[in-house]
From TrEMBL:
Membrane spanning stretches: none
Alcohol dehydrogenase-like N-terminal domain location: 35-164
UniProt entry tagged with the keyword Transmembrane helix: no
Identification of the protein by name: alcohol dehydrogenase
UniProt xrefs under Pfam families: ADH_N (PF08240), ADH_zinc_N (PF00107)
InterPro entries: ADH-like_C, ADH-like_N, ADH_Zn_CS, GroES-like_sf, NAD(P)-bd_dom_sf
Organism of origin: Lactuca saligna (Willowleaf lettuce)
Molecular function as annotated in GO: alcohol dehydrogenase (NAD+) activity; S-(hydroxymethyl)glutathione dehydrogenase [NAD(P)+] activity; zinc ion binding
Catalytic activity reported: a secondary alcohol + NAD(+) = a ketone + NADH + H(+); a primary alcohol + NAD(+) = an aldehyde + NADH + H(+)
Enzyme Commission number, as recorded: 1.1.1.1
Enzyme class: oxidoreductase
Record-level GO cellular component terms: cytosol
Amino acid sequence: MPSTTNQVIRCKAAVAWEAGKPLVIEEVEVAPPQKMEVRIKILFTSLCHTDVYFWEAKGQNPVFPRILGHEAGGVVESVGEGVTDLQPGDHVLPVFTGECKECAHCKSEESNMCDLLRINTDRGVMINDQKSRFSINGKPIFHFVGTSTFSEYTVVHVGCLAKINPLAPLDKVCVLSCGISTGLGATLNVAKPKKGSSVAIFGLGAVGLAAAEGARISGASRIIGVDLNANRFELAKKFGVTEFVNPKDHTKPVQEVIAEMTNGGVDRSVECTGHIDAMISAFECVHDGWGVAVLVGVPHKDAVFKTSPLNLLNERTLKGTFFGNYKPRSDIPSVVEKYMNKELELEKFITHELPFSEINKAFDLMLKGEGLRCIIRMGE
Ligand code: NAD
Ligand code: ZN
């Protein structure tokens, strides 16, 4: 039994003390896991745009001081009361939305919106006792989406941990714990394009390009990438994107540009930007009669979706999804196997690597729109 079981662990964590201010690497105390909780050692984490939104807190409720981070891979250090599925040494991917396996959603084949563990961005505490497991000199530091992976050790509800093949390299498969599964699933599980169809992808970051990868795997014949950042276009070619539209190059709305390119609209669209204008365009650019648009980007908290109801009456469908409709515990181990069997490439999403001590540089890269995913090596 590891000597740290039932003990408070002191380790390094990157604490966001205030909105938009650089994270500070602090020594934090991480309490032992309680009922249905697991304490894990994070080996690799990456940065997703959702971390940046909640760090900036411009369009989201501020919860500080907080330990951000939700895309990661780690190893179980110890388990709390009632945890039978996991044991120390197991390799896991923490996920921002959970699966209790007991509620109506978990029992439904259609939903991954677990009643108990669905994403909650405003909660900074564990659900068992409404307290934080992180502290500095007795002062609590809040959690983020139940994962807080910018810490060498973190405590996560067992329902938010996917147990994966221990042979899978955690420095690669960590990107499946959020962005890549989200984009891939948004296309494969929700948009479901038919072979030979046309698909528009709004936002060519890692999430959008994973959605494009889903379109390529589905046999889409045209994959139209839309982004305001022209630097993304070169990168996107590796992901099967066949045509590019930069809304800045056109005077008319991008949905009209796409309708002209596709004889009335695309068969499917997937929005991965988080911007309300792009969400509306992504919906309005699908073909009437059969088009389906899927929203993935996390919106500003006050955003309102405005479109003519006629766009729906004309038989366009609007959908949205968290985590690509995957159930974290039931489905993610097999997505990891797709990587192991070389059916899914993850290396091309990983454009940067940094030691934990330089985590703020990963925020700079994301803000500048440079690269896709940056892997942060913990313990360095
Ligand atoms: P990213 O910043 O790497 O990529 C976003 C891209 O969108 C950028 O290239 C940017 O230039 C582009 N963009 C921004 N506004 C645009 C507009 N109006 N029109 C066209 N392009 C525009 O971010 P990411 O990590 O790939 O995440 C993408 C989005 O997905 C974010 O909103 C993130 O919060 C969200 N997300 C959602 C889920 C989910 O489960 N629903 C999970 C992960 C991430
Ligand atoms: Zn559930």
